[in-house]
Automatic annotation (TrEMBL):
Its EC number is 1.-.-.-. It holds the Pfam family Acyl-CoA_dh_M. It comes from Streptomyces bullii. This is Acyl-CoA dehydrogenase family protein. InterPro entries: Acyl-CoA_Oxase/DH_mid-dom (IPR006091), Acyl-CoA_Oxase/DH_mid-dom_sf (IPR046373), AcylCo_DH-like_C (IPR036250), AcylCo_DH/oxidase_C (IPR009075), AcylCoA_DH/ox_N (IPR013786), AcylCoA_DH/ox_N_sf (IPR037069), AcylCoA_DH/oxidase_NM_dom_sf (IPR009100). The keyword Flavoprotein applies. Residues 37-125 form the Acyl-CoA dehydrogenase/oxidase N-terminal domain. Residues 128-221 form the Acyl-CoA oxidase/dehydrogenase middle domain. Residues 234-387 form the Acyl-CoA dehydrogenase/oxidase C-terminal domain.
Length: 579
């Protein structure tokens, strides 16, 4: 779409999309909750919704700048997806499935493959990633789809299910066992295939995401040209695992968008609903649900955005960091949805009424976030498998770590431009985890700042919660760094989950150090940090209380943002603290 400010920073671009999508409370419009819910009942998308997104230019942000699109980096796509997810997760997942389907092309495709796919996406085509099989799910080591050598190409046989966009997608990236080589990725264009040799399955009926194309595809002696191969023959398993690092990170945007909407719905209801002579927001337990949910949103944002930036700052770290985001952010999202449901009470169960019944759709749709691209348990296992290597060096400063952390957490700079290369991604972090390894130095720096800059009460509260988290962290990694540690045990899963808490705590602390320099000593500029760290500590020790001293200022920001144009975000907290 011409005339769009595509050269503006990522946050401004997301705000522009927000304005284009319009007000969810409007009585009509393709992104009003009224129409979204009405068409959800029929398992369809609101007329004009996908067209509006395309006209704005969203599809251009699925194609990297290098290949003729406007995708500058993953941070940009993350923020755009967050804005879209505030309205309708079904449409966000449709485009997300397309991203999953083509990232392997950007990473390993040749010039011809990249050009063809880029032109197709820019013209409105979709793509899909055909990896899962009915009997194997996430067991990527078992692959019954075969590609046998035949002349100057291959003959493909097998079934892939379930697959997002399998029916609507023009391009299909297929995970198949290549004769003589092993599992590989093949890029197919349905337009070039014999129509009699393949067919799509009917859409699967799902609890949420109604109207989304979740279907499958079966190949029966389907002839595929030799030029369909993506990357090296036999490298398919590694390539799939590396592609998932990108989309696992991007899934955090679905959760952040959902958190924003359910909190907004519940908060507005709490301010409008009167019981016992007062708005129910004044009931202490209702207030607690909402403020906890808001703090969880800030934690999720602090955790996910730096990892999105890491694709172009430190891509070799994504094997571990993307799994942390994929486990923790959807988990926080599920808990925020639960907090909002408690505020809404019986109305959370209704398909009408408050916000036109949108809450129940958001609740059902978000359930997918912890399932696809590896379930919660799959991601915790992936973290646990790397945890001993991380624990052994947890207190050793990483070479170049300070500069890397600044580039990840300094909001004053845009993330670098993405120049896709499969060589930049790794299957493990090889113990390189600057985010957790920098904790002790960051705590020491916070102590110096507390003495020099902060009011005594804020400084004392900050150092108290940092000390408590440091003790828990040391105990956690001491349990990991033993010969008895077993990554596949339930204890291994629990310690992996605790590692995610420490990763998130470090991310919040670095955000404060690198992006709140001018606001730290002002009202609210450090109070939010104390609260999110206390909230994280509550995940390890439910007896911990939030410090009521710092809640009123943050509460004012939450209420002020209820009807504002910008989504709930730490950026609004920073702006308010800056005066």
């Amino acid at each position: 779409m011409t005339g769009q400010p595509f050269d503006r920073p990522a946050f401004a671009l997301a705000a522009d999309l927000d304005r284009a999508l319009g007000d969810t409370d409007a009585p009509s419009g393709p992104f009003s909750f009224a129409e979204i819910v009405e068409h959800e009942e029929n398992g369809s998308l609101p007329p004009g919704a996908v067209d509006l997104v395309r006209q704005w230019g969203f599809a251009e942000h699925l194609v990297p700048e290098e290949f003729g699109g406007r995708l500058r980096n993953l941070e940009q796509l993350f923020l755009l997806t967050r804005s879209l997810s505030r309205r309708n997760l079904t449409i966000a997942v449709m485009f997300g499935s397309a991203v999953l389907g083509v990232n392997s092309v950007w990473l390993w495709g040749d010039d011809e493959q990249r050009a063809e796919v880029a032109q197709g996406l820019l013209s409105g085509d979709l793509a899909c990633f055909a990896v899962s099989e009915p009997d194997h799910g996430s067991d990527l080591g078992t692959n019954e789809t075969t590609a046998a050598l035949a002349g100057d190409g291959y003959v493909l046989n097998g079934e892939k299910w379930p697959v997002g966009n399998a029916t609507r997608g023009r391009f299909v990236t297929v995970y198949a066992h290549l004769e003589g080589a092993g599992s590989s990725l093949l890029l197919l264009d349905k337009r070039d295939l014999d129509e009699a040799s393949w067919d799509n399955h009917p859409f699967v009926r799902t609890v949420g995401l109604r109207g989304h194309d979740l279907s499958g595809i079966t190949f029966r002696d389907t002839r595929v040209p030799a030029g369909a191969l993506l990357g090296r023959p036999g490298a398919g398993l590694a390539e799939v695992l590396q592609v998932l690092q990108i989309t696992r990170t991007a899934i955090g945007a679905l959760s952040l968008g959902t958190m924003d909407s359910v909190l907004r719905i519940a908060l507005r209801h709490a301010r409008e609903r009167v019981l016992y002579g007062q708005e129910i927001y004044r009931i202490p337990v209702i207030r607690r649900h909402l403020l906890r949910g808001y703090l969880d949103l800030l934690i999720a944002e602090c955790t996910a955005l730096p990892v999105a930036r890491s694709l172009t700052v430190a891509p070799s770290r994504l094997s571990l960091w993307s799994s942390v985001v994929k486990y923790l952010v959807p988990t926080l999202g599920e808990e925020v949805v639960q907090e909002a449901a408690r505020v809404l009470g019986a109305r959370s169960y209704l398909r009408e009424g408050v916000a036109h019944g949108a809450f129940q759709k958001l609740q059902r749709d978000h359930a997918i976030a912890s399932i696809f691209e590896g379930t919660t348990h799959v991601n915790l296992h992936g973290i646990a498998a790397q945890l001993r290597a991380v624990a052994r060096v947890a207190d050793r400063p990483a070479r170049g770590g300070d500069e890397l952390l600044r580039r990840l957490f300094d909001w004053s700079e845009e993330a670098p431009r993405w120049e896709p290369s499969g060589r930049a991604l790794r299957l493990t972090n090889a113990a390189e985890d600057e985010i957790t390894r920098g904790w002790s130095a960051a705590v020491a720096e916070a102590g110096r700042l507390a003495e020099r800059e902060l009011p005594a009460e804020e400084g004392a509260a900050l150092m108290k919660v940092l000390g408590a988290l440091s003790d828990r962290r040391a105990a956690c990694y001491a349990r990991v760094d033993t010969d008895a540690f077993d990554a596949v045990s339930t204890e291994g899963q629990d310690l992996a989950a605790e590692h995610c808490v420490h990763h998130a705590a470090a991310s919040c602390l670095y955000t404060w150090l690198h992006s709140f320099g001018a606001e730290r000593a002002r009202p609210g500029g450090t109070g939010w940090l104390v609260l999110v760290l206390q909230r994280l500590l509550q995940r390890l020790d439910p007896a911990v209380d939030l410090d009521e001293t710092f809640l009123p200022w943050l509460e004012e920001r939450v209420l002020a943002g209820l009807d504002g144009p910008e989504y709930f975000s730490l950026r609004t907290v920073k702006a308010a603290a800056g005066g």
